[in-house]
Amino acid sequence: MSADQPNNKPKAESDSAKISLPPVEHLVSTEHKLLVGKRTLEYTATCGTLLLQEVHSEAEGEHKGQYKGKKTRASVFFIAYTLKPSKKANADRPITFSFNGGPGSSSVWLHLGLLGPQRVPTDAMGQCGAPPYALTDNEFTLLTDSDLVFIDPVGTGHSRVAEGEKLAEYHEYQRDLDAVGEFIRLYLTRNGRWGAPKYLIGESYGTTRAAGLSRHLQEKHNIHLNGLMLVSMAVDFQTLSFDHGNELPYPLYLPTYAATAWYHKALKPALQKKTLKEIVAEAEAFANGEYWTALMQGSRLSTEQRQKVAEKLAHFSGLSLQYLLRCDLRPTEFRFFKELLRERGQTVGRLDSRFLGLDRDDAGEHPEEDAGMNNLVGAYAVGINRLLRDTLKFDSDAPYLVIAPLWNTWSWKGFENKYVNVGDSLRRAMHANPDMRIYVASGYYDLATPHAAGDYTLSHLGLHAQLQGNVQVSYFEAGHMMYIHQPSLARMAQELRAFVKQVD
């Protein structure tokens, strides 16, 4: 998750993230049935590891350059679901490669929340309930219309580097693309799927990866995609980075602040009577107009105008006028999490601001935990471990790393002294392949990757006018993982099925 990381950021990689496994391929296949409506899906589940290898040559002496075979660098764990009757019969059936974000997240969230044949059940709001949690058949699975391959990037899930290799090598933007791109090429080749319509779906940092892969796969492997599904966009990090001197996030987060305050009934009665969409639209108009203009003035803003803007900002954000004046009209996201409901002794979640948390005291600036993440992580860890051993028959004593804390140590080689922005990779991929389509899902209660930040990114890609119609954006009354919310799950599943079937 980036975008999916919890608030209490670890300072270094966990010891478990450094485990190396022997370089062997280990695949397990099992047969299953799933009832979806009146239709019975018969499918094969294959899970295990594929090796990432490279040609190895002698580096020294008279044998320099001589071919010495292949050197194994890492093993990538995956879970694939293929609809029967056979791989050959389904050679031209759509195939969707899925991954999550972080950086450092396994593919468990999209797998067990939205796409796979089983999911972690939640109530109507999205609460997972109390341990020990459960797994249930997923009537909303995308397997109805596409085969599915869930990829755990190196250092997550059961994916590991080979003995003697450096794990950190794979924890930077380009090497991550190299590894995931090579896995996709290898999977297509071994399974005879080059003729299939090809899709990627990523969430949070997974959208960063997907946007980068859309161009990387073209350049490196001559693979042109039919479409990308981007869940909770994180493509231009300037829109998400509350750095001194960067004014962009403040107006882009404000509509979600307003939605959050409305949800928790923290706005004035007149605003509470309006609908969520009305609140968001009014906040966006203020954010893109008067608020943005005021921020651009900096210290040149007059006292009178400053007071006027602060009053409107309080009106939409639910924060007090005095607090907004003290923070110079610039409430950062972590301050908002703590301040909005401070008088109630509660904090709001980052991944999903509908969820509420409790701290030791109510005096600090930042919450201790992300209430949105705390609702999910235990249930999804139970789900994937039960699925692997009980259903898919993959036995391993190695820990399955649901989240490896890589975001603090992730290398941004190639983006030194500038914000990470992979939008141009996406634009170039679409210009080179004008038939490629984009589906974007955004949650109104997502305070990790707010919907307005995604909208701003899309409108600044530089995409040619004739390709603007290739982009579809949907908004949901939920957070970062909008699919935990039952009404959002049902609609999103319908839209994704139509997208891979290329139905408008």
Q: What report would you give on this structure?
A:
By secondary structure, the chain is of the alpha/beta class. The chain folds into two domains: 15-56 and 66-238 and 377-500, 3-Layer(aba) Sandwich (Rossmann fold), CATH 3.40.50; 250-369, no CATH class. It has 13 helices and 14 strands. The strands form three sheets. Strands 1, 2, 3, 4, 7, 8, 9, 10, 13 and 14 form a ten-stranded mixed sheet that branches. The chain is globular, with a radius of gyration of 23 Å. It starts with 26 loop residues before the first strand and ends with a helix. Residues 1-21 and 56-68 have low confidence and may be disordered.
Q: What name does the CATH topology of the largest domain carry?
A: Rossmann fold
Q: Quickly name the level 1 CATH class of the largest domain.
A: Alpha Beta
Low-pLDDT residue intervals, each spanning 5 or more residues: 1-21, 56-68
User: Sheet bearing the most strands, described?
Assistant: 10 strands, mixed
- Secondary-structure arrangement, i.e. CATH architecture of the largest domain: 3-Layer(aba) Sandwich
Kindly state the mean pLDDT as a whole number? Answer: 91
Domains counted in the coordinates: how many? Answer: 2
Radius of gyration, whole Å? 23 Å
Order of helices and strands: EEEEHEEEEHEHEHHHHHHEEHHEHEH
Helix content: 25-40%
Q: How many helix segments?
A: 13
Report the sheet-strand fraction: 15-25%
